[in-house]
Amino acid sequence: MSETDPQPESTSSRALLGVQFVGERWLGFQHNVGGVWYLFVDVAGWVGRALTRRRIRLGRVAIISQVVRLGARAIGIVMLLSMAIGAILALQMEPPLRDFGQTDKIANIVGVAVLRELGPLISAVILTGFAGAAVAAEVGTMVVGEEIEALEAHALNPVRFLVVPRVIATTVSLVCLTIIADAVAIAAGMFISVYVHEVPAVQYWDNTLAQCEAKDMLTGLVKAGVFGMLIGLISCYNGLKVTGGAAGVGRATTATVVASVVSVIFADLIFTTVFFALEWT
Known about the structure:
Layout: H1 7-52, H2 60-70, H3 75-99, H4 106-144, H5 147-153, H6 158-195, H7 201-211, H8 214-240, H9 245-277
Helix pairs in contact: 1-6, 2-6, 3-4, 3-6, 4-6, 4-7, 4-8, 4-9, 6-8, 8-9
């Protein structure tokens, strides 16, 4: 037999390894989705019990402190980036609209784009890098330091005392940050339109009110709430499953940022498709 005879066998081995690699990644994806889902069910169960049973409390002080730590401290960067986004939209939309004599319609485009999409999406990406990674690292460090086992040894449920406050905090924080981002981006677009493109301020404001409806704001806030919940769940889940010491904490932090951004964008796609089908767009 010639030396080239084993080549087909080598090719088939590489193909088999490729299939095995894809299968392992698919199983890992299913495992992570299932884990986040079960964590969501557990969190929802504790929230439901806290609302229906007086003796079960989630810790108002813990929730407020997490909102301040994760949300309030992100206001500055959200305002800065939202201002930039609003200015960019106003600058980019002017040349094509000017060709049709519709420069004043910048207000319509900026209002709808910010309220429906860019406000919640940009805020979610910022919160992912600002808070999601921090939560994953914090919870992961607790796992490495055996603090989670200490809680369980004292009959304290880690989900109730660690996960629930953080998930509620990320959800509430992102809704509030989205409202701030919407206002700042629309104001920045108005500033550029009025002082650069010489659109009358009254006309800009009237076009914004005429184009944007309550459902535009509502759909954006619904997205923001779900995005915040996803960020909180994914970050806590990755933190709780940390193994391997400090290196494991680093891997969990990286996985949290990647998974949160991907999840938020796909959730946005699903929401947009549903709202389009229901003619809410």
